[in-house]
């Protein structure tokens, strides 16, 4: 049994065959799916999927690239849905900042402001966070600690192998491991994996992105979590079954609503 803790099944790349995508994943042992919130415009699709499939859950939040559309009233509108189990994906992403220095500083400050707002909202509604960090480890960690995010905990989605973030395992944070681990240039991810506490490991795809080897270049799907499980099994010298049980139990501990999935 595998739980895909981060898959954008509401993405337009799945519009034509989403039923087949979910069916194929279920056949390959994926028993639950979490659709992160990235942009409010995609939430109706995520909600419809969660109401169609018992195994599908969703989160509400705003990705750093879409912060200008953040609205706490919109968050409040969706968070009461029984299948909404987390807040995010939220966080900091400094990869595509403006070149103009003044605009860059404005963008960074706005990202921080919206990230903090979502942390506070998660604490208010008592739901864990899905955290996106890219080229912003220092600021992200500082904010998570300063605003006591451990109160609700969460997952560092697509963990970037930055070892300074490993101490967040002691702050009620888990580490999402996906297809990047299988890439030929994944040296940092491979080296950092054994340093992550085993009770803090989660499986994810980030579908339709970051497709694992040997399917790189194709659309990623939840069924490909099996390749991530195999790689973790190899690197940690565990059986496939042990990795599945370990990561599933971890997902159920963080996201309590998964406990009903068998």
Structure notes:
With 262 residues, the protein is α/β, with parallel strands linked by helices. It is built from 8 helices and 8 strands; from the N terminus they run E-H-E-H-E-H-E-H-E-H-E-E-H-E-H-H. It has an 8-stranded parallel β-sheet with strand order 1-2-3-4-5-6-7-8. Helix 3 (72-79) links the parallel strand 3 and strand 4. Helix 4 (101-125) runs parallel beside helix 5 (137-146). The longest helix is centred in the middle third of the chain and has 25 residues, at 101-125. The model has no long low-confidence stretch (mean pLDDT 96).
How would you sum up this structure in a few lines?
By secondary structure, the protein is α/β, with parallel strands linked by helices.
Key phrases:
single chain, 262 residues, 37% helix, 16% strand
Give the arrangement of secondary structure elements:
Elements: E1 2-4, H1 18-27, E2 30-35, H2 43-52, E3 56-60, H3 72-79, E4 84-93, H4 101-125, E5 129-134, H5 137-146, E6 154-157, E7 173-177, H6 187-192, E8 201-203, H7 225-236, H8 240-254
Helix pairs in contact: 4-5, 7-8
> Going across the major beta sheet, what is the strand order?
1-2-3-4-5-6-7-8
> What is the strand content?
15-25%
Secondary structure tally, helices: 8
Most strands sheet: 8 strands, parallel
